[in-house]
Predict the structure.
Amino acid sequence: MPEGHTIHRLARDLRRDFEGVEVAACSPQGRFVQVQVIDGERLTTAHAIGKHLFLEFGAHRVHIHLGLFGKFKKRRLSEPPRSSVRLRLAPRPNEGRDGVDEGSRRDLAWDLTGPTDCRLLGDDAFEELRARLGADPLADGTRPTHARKRIQASKRPIGALLLDQSVIAGIGNVYRAELLFLSGLHPESPGQSITDRQFTKLWKLAKDLLAKGVRANRIVTVPLEERREAPRSRGEQLYVYKRRSCRRCQSTIVRSVVALRTMYHCPTCQPEDTRWKKEPAQ
DNA sequence: ATGTCATGATAAC
DNA sequence: TTATCCTGACATA
């Protein structure tokens, strides 16, 4: 689940549920040691950069990164959290006051499990982190010039560059495979071989598909009219990721490892560019 | 009960 | 380049 779209969607949902609200915060698992600092504080806002989520509580800021396993899900406050919950957020009960107890009335809680990070983050560390993240296609008004230059100056495969968060922030393994498919690019094409036109297309696709992902709250890359399988079917509708055959041409999908992650591409729709690959010696 | 894999990232060798 | 951290779902025995 957690690519950039998930995190931006979480920021949106958490704003909707907690912005301007005093929260009750606890860490049943105990590993968010400083949780008491935000317990009882009012959420100022929540925002995302790439795959990083930030919860602002006045002068305090919580930095959350889901990593590969992390989940942050809406639960019922009346259901006790599992012991693995690193952070539970709920509207703060206003006992004794007149008026309704928001927390109990809405029976609302959000539980965070399995994150690689859930800690307070000061301004300096925040700026440092932001400085090492590339352009986020989901941030409005972002200009991708720097990302393009990084890519075009690099000999690394485009499949590796897309996962490098300091180049573009927010793309993960599913979007990587699908974006390269839709761009007709072979994952091993060196960054240097990417033309302006190809980059522009890649960036636009990234923007559009990530934004669509935020709206749908899941990765959607295949337009409705191109879907074959039952629209109800569970799995995401994708072109190549984790598939046996290409959704478009039925060729057998090639699995490889690029930048330590499993890559999927269609040998027909994403041919190798012969400009960079030498013919095998006779 | 044990093993495997996953939409991520880093530290250490 | 390998090892490590985080959790849970599913497969296999």
Remarks:
- Chain A is about 25% helix and 20% strand.
